[in-house]
Amino acid sequence: xxxxxxxxxxxxxxxxxxxxxxxxxxxxxxxxxxxxxxxxxxxxxxxxxxxxxxxxxxxxxxxxxxxxxxxxxxxxxxxxxxxxx
Length: 85
What we know:
It is built from 5 helices and 2 strands. The protein has helices at residues 12-20, 25-32, 36-44, 51-61, 65-84, and strands at 3-5, 48-50.
C-alpha cells in the first residue's frame, strides 16, 4: 500500500486530535492499537504514513476522509508558511 509523504508536512494533525481529546500520547497509541513508540514517531518525526495505517487511524477516531483531508491540508499550509520565513 502506498504512503502519504509530504516534504512540508509533519504529522502534527495527530497531536491536534490527541490534544482535543485530552489524551496522553500513550493513551492515544493504545486507543489506536499502535505501539507507543510508533505513535510517538508519527507525532514527532514522521513525514508520512502508510495509507492502510492512516485509514485505520481515521476509522478508530471516527472522522471522515474529508475531515482528515482538511486537517492535513491545514497542516501543510501552515508548514509551508513557516518554511518560507
